[in-house]
Every structure is written in structure tokens, then in C-alpha cells.
Amino acid sequence: MRAVRHAKRARDVTRRFRTTGSSSAQAPAGVIAALEANAVSVGLAGGLFLVAGGAAVRAFHEGESEARRASPARESAYLVQDLESDLAVATPSRSPAELPSLFLPRGGLPAAVLQRSRAPLSPSSTVLSSLGLRGAHLERLRRDGIVVLDGALGADELQGIAQELKAERVQDRLSRNPNHIASGGNSDPVRTDRTLFLDSAVRREFKSVLPCLTHGERLLRSVGHFLEREGFGGFLAHADESIPLRVPDETQLAIYGPGGAFYKPHRDGGGAEAAAGPLSHLRLRGLGRRLVTGILYLNDNGPNGARPWREEDGGCLRVYAGGDSTSECHHVDIPPIGGRMVLFDAQAMLHEVRPNHHERAAITVWFLVGSEA
Ligand SMILES: O=C(O)CCC(=O)C(=O)O
Ligand SMILES: [Fe+2]
């Protein structure tokens, strides 16, 4: 049974952005649940492929070509090619609301989705407007529990960061995360990356050494300020109350080595109990204070980078629909492409970093529940 699961998982890695397996009993209001609800699954070559309808496809592509005109970012084009091959098997009469909801092109969204936006667009800083962040992104995040934005950093910035991270001074400060080496007396590591936590003091110390990284960090943290200012208020999956959000002082820089470094399935904001329970209980827990995970990938592997990301590079962020990574639940693999930003529900979203075989760097900020425990 286990072997079958593993073989199945291995196959699944090759089907990025596609759903597979049977439905999960307790899928959160995460993206995969949304995909599950909205997709028509068609048996094809032994697998289940995600397809959507003609109207949705048109609306998506109109939004996308707008984004391509407005931005030179190639990542969106890359993603659309992938979606296109799935969407080619379209069935008619699906509404734009049923678009595959995980990936949003930078700056451009289908009109129908924009109309659904709750908050008006109000990015005040140049940082945010360069990112093209909109109220609609927050709406998606609230509804689906995850949103992915591409092209947050340009090729020059990513090259700069890659150079900066090679500095001995930085490498010397990276260490294994003491809290996550092993769990419950088990000597198997939970994660094998190396991290450096950037707080105000460390930031000051490295400011002159890491100017490009500092820019990326500001960008990611500014997303938290945007969420804060827009009154993000939490996820629909936990809609029982409105939660204020706070940007912490700390950012995690994580480097996954090319020798298969990984981070096993986990939730950033607590366990299964945390995912199921209302957030008011979570305020009493340390990890429960994490509300939204924000990740920015720093690899120089975008389409304009040193070389594009390849399947064999591994290191995908895998997000699960169900509560349990050992059951046959749906998952989506998100390649860690430089300049890609991922925001997700830190409480509910079970995720892992798949074994990595190429340079992989990322910064992560956990945006917290606003009120102190
Ligand atoms: O780098 C990633 O893709 C995810 C890392 C992660 O899950 C974590 O640091 O908690
Ligand atoms: Fe995580």
C-alpha cells in the first residue's frame, strides 16, 4: 500500500498543476478544494487531469495577454502554457468564477474576477505597485487559502541575490534550524535546509552586503503591510471571526542544498487540531499566532535567469488539499521559480518542500495574528 502511494506520488510530481487521486473528505477551503469543486476530471493515460470550460479559458487568456503587454515578466507565459495544455480539453458553459484559481498573472486579472474584488485597489508605495498587488489577490487568498504571484523580482535582481548569497559572511551564518531537526525523539530530520533569521539587528549588519536581498525582503514584507492595511481579516475557511494581522520583525532566509534537501509535510501555524479549530483557540498557542505564510523564491532560475527551472531540479513546494499527506489526497506542486511569491493559510495549508536537486533559496515571513497572546 505504501509502495503504491510512493509510486503514485512520484508520478504526480510529473503532473504539476494537475489534481490527482480521489477526493479528500475534509479538504479546507484551499485552492485544491476550489479546483476540485470547479474542475471536470477526465481519465487520461491513467491519471486525472484538470479541465475547465471555454468561457473561463477565454476570460483567463484575455486577462493574461493584458498582463503580458503590461509586464515583461515571462513567468506568467510559462504558467499559461502549462494551463493551456490542460485547458485544451475544455468543456463548455463554465463561468469565469470557475477559473483555475491558483496562479494569477502579475498585474492582470480577468475582468470577472476583478469585479468580485472586495477591496478597491490602493497600493500606495512604489514597492507594492511594482508588484501589481491588488485587492483581487487578497480576495483569492481569502477564498482559496493560497495565491501565487509571479515576476516579483526581475532577472537582474535575482542574479544580484544569487551573488550576494555566495558571500562567505552569509554562508557562515546559515545554520540548521534547531527547532526542526527532529520531532518527538525521532532522529529523522523534519527539514534539512539551512536558515538565517533576519531581524532588525541582523538586517543592519548585512545591509551593505545584501542590497538585492534587502529589496526582495522589503517587497515580501510590504505585502504583509498591504494585508494589514486592507484589513485582510483571515480566511473564509475560518470565517467565524475577523482577525487583525501584524508583520513580525523576523524574516527567514532558507537555503536548500542540491543534495536532496527537503522539509517534510507540516503546517506553519500548528497541527491538524489547529487547522480544524476556530482561530480564537489558536491565539493561546505559540504557533497559532502565524496567520499567513508569505514566501518569495530567490533562485536565479526564472525563464530569463541563469537557466530555467527544470523538473529534475525538484524542490517544489507541494500543497495538500486534505488534512493528511499520507492519504490519497490532492496536491499541487509549485516549482520554486525565482521571483515567484506564494501566500497561503499558515494554519490550514499542509505543505512540504520536495527533495531538492539544484540551488534553492527563499525568504519566508509569517504574518501573525495581530493581537498578542
Ligand atoms: O520554501 C518553501 O517552499 C517552503 C518552506 C517552508 O515550508 C517553511 O519554511 O516553513
Ligand atoms: Fe512551511
Order of helix and strand elements from N to C terminus? HHEEHHEHHHEHHEEHHEEEHHEEEEEE
Strand content: 15-25%
CATH superfamily: q2cbj1_9rhob like domain
In percent, how helical is the residue content?
A: 25-40%
Number of strands: 15
Described by the principal axes of the CA atoms, the overall outline is globular
Which stretches are poorly predicted, pLDDT < 50 over at least 5 residues?
A: 1-125, 271-286
Compounds present?
2-oxoglutaric acid, fe (ii) ion
The number of helical runs is 13
CATH fold-level label: Jelly Rolls
Write the layout of secondary structure elements.
Elements: H1 2-13, H2 31-38, E1 40-44, E2 47-51, H3 54-70, H4 75-87, E3 103-104, H5 111-115, H6 126-131, H7 135-144, E4 146-149, H8 155-166, H9 168-171, E5 175-176, E6 194-198, H10 200-206, H11 211-229, E7 245-246, E8 251-256, E9 261-266, H12 272-276, H13 279-282, E10 290-297, E11 317-320, E12 331-334, E13 341-345, E14 351-356, E15 360-369
Parallel strand pairs: 3-4
Antiparallel strand pairs: 1-2, 4-13, 5-6, 6-8, 7-15, 8-15, 9-14, 10-13, 10-15, 11-12, 11-14
The chain binds 2-oxoglutaric acid (AKG) and fe (ii) ion.
